[in-house]
Amino acid sequence: MQFDLCVIGGGATGAGSALDAQLRGLRTLLVDAGDFASGTSSASTKLVHGGVRYLEQAVKTFDLAEYRMVQGALHERASMLRNAPHLAHVAEFLVPVYSWFQATYFQIGLKIYDLLAGKKNLFPSKILSREETLKRLPGLKGAGLYGAVAYADGQFDDARYAMALVRSFQEAGGKALNYCRVESFVRAGGKSISGVQLHDAIGRNKWTIQTKIVVNATGPFSDKIRQLASPNASPRLRPSKGAHLLFPEELFPGEDALLVPETEDKRVIFAVPWQGRLLVGTTEAEATPETKMAVSRDEAEYMLRQLNPYLSQPLRVEQSVSGFAGLRPLVAAGDNKHSTKELIRDHEVEVDEQSGLISILGGKWTTHRLMAEDTVNAVQRALGQAVTESQTKRHPLDGAAGYVPQLPDAMVKQYGLAIETAKHLASKFGANATRVLELIRGDADMRLPVVDGFAQTIEDVLARRLGLQLYDWRASILAAPVVGELLCREFGWSETEKSEQVARYVEKIRGFLRGLGLSEA
Ligand SMILES: Cc1cc2nc3c(=O)[nH]c(=O)nc-3n(C[C@H](O)[C@H](O)[C@H](O)COP(=O)(O)OP(=O)(O)OC[C@H]3O[C@@H](n4cnc5c(N)ncnc54)[C@H](O)[C@@H]3O)c2cc1C
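^ thats the input. predicted complex w/ flavin-adenine dinucleotide below
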């Protein structure tokens, strides 16, 4: 089959680019070497934001490019929230302050943040009294507290958002394949790329696909694909690793998020309520695409060292229920003198003149739509077409059409579900939640993988479709045989294959627990 475009990488950037291209009428194929969103796109802090730290950095260094990046991201924030209201919502962040001076300093900074968002601002930042702050975050240490500055940003379910992009792309007529790695390129007349050679890890087949253009959206792996196209291409990426830990939410109750405004390495750390847990993160350390993506004991202790001075009851690593780590696909600043935390989270579209490969480098989850728009503009130019308008600014994603915040209550009435179950389903599937329930009504036994498509392994289901792996590592070990059984029936695995899959998954999670020095009990 001949495609106009093949997008390599099914994370935020690739799935977003594939959707944009397909909606502009380009016949598009999206491939990922693993599961969709199995890379950085399911390992973010899950904030839809401009980035208050980047704004502070921009102001302090008079960096116009960084300032514009924050502004662009704040505008994108509005699109992301609007296009999938079941997966992204407004959250309030509290920055604790200890003097009038500190309160004024952060208030001015956050007013600039409000101004940059312009009409797209969610609601204005404000100073909270000490009493109000402690009422909203009762676990905060009260000694010396002046109050807090509260501001609004977005929060989202990153893995499910990526799935919604992929499913919307499919609905628009695109073809999506996971577990298909691009291993090499086909060259027309030895010059520009005219196709890709794929290795399908599930069927163990190799295929060649003809395509007019290839987009490299492989995030932290972008240099590998760039060098596959042009072996002499010099590296552009400076990946950095970031880790997170999750705790039971009752250890730091409240509906608002806490921002620790300055860490020992001059960054910020968040403690955010997230799907019944407290999500703490993140770290920043130079890394390579080969770096192991597991949270180390040192990283866990670093995060708690930053957070605990603000809490009345310090958290301990032993209380954590899970964690995750990812690689930021940062673009190098040229001189390599900057540390990764100083690098701008901006993006760049690179067109390789010789091979024709279009690489979309850098960026953030929040700006994935804008990155996709810029990429597809470059694709249309490369195809010799007029650049047409992107359709994604107002394109409700899979599950968004017909979704209303009252959906869980309606599901409780109609299906007799517990409200917690209804809320969980609505937050994962949006308006499709009722379709899930109809399927279960038909055959309660084995609908999990069928409903969600794409899922091939136990981790695909537990980490990125249901989120149980983030909720509780130990619970996901217990759930593994059940999911293994469902997938076994779906794919016709033998008993040996099923046992191997369960053992592999359980060993991976045990490795995560061991990495933090935690027991399985
Ligand atoms: C710790 C951390 C916290 C973050 N927090 C936030 C946040 O709160 N908000 C925000 O906006 N951004 C955040 N980000 C940034 C954001 O997560 C990333 O910018 C974004 O997810 C990158 O997506 P991507 O699609 O470019 O890369 P990825 O998600 O890594 O996707 C690349 C994909 O390419 C595939 N691939 C690689 N090689 C091949 C091949 N040969 N063939 C086929 N497929 C291949 C991989 O399997 C992978 O799925 C954070 C990043 C990190 C690391």
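The chain has 17 helices and 18 strands.
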